[in-house]
Amino acid sequence: VQLVESGGGLVQPGGSLRLSCAASGVTFSNCHMRWYRQTPGKEREFVAVINSYGDSRNYADSVKGRFTISRDNSKNVVYLQMNSLKPEDTAVYYCNAERSGRFYWGQGTQVTVSS
Prior knowledge:
It contains no helices and 11 strands. The chain is an all-beta fold.
């Protein structure tokens, strides 16, 4: 199983980014997909989840109303649209796939929110 994140970068406060996570080696449409983030010295933090069908989503309170998770099962890709970014959103963002109780991780993509 391979998960490859992309779309990170440097953005000013109030700006937007869209992260992508491309999956291979797994039946993507059977996976619940999550985004996590981590800053140095802190534990990895849950950001958002979308179920395998794409019709159920949940978010951390810190990103609710600003971030949107979505997926395209025809392309084996999950997205995280991040709007109204804040400096505290700076972190490495990781994609996670869950299939039958097994979890798989991507290598992460850095998001830096700074003026």
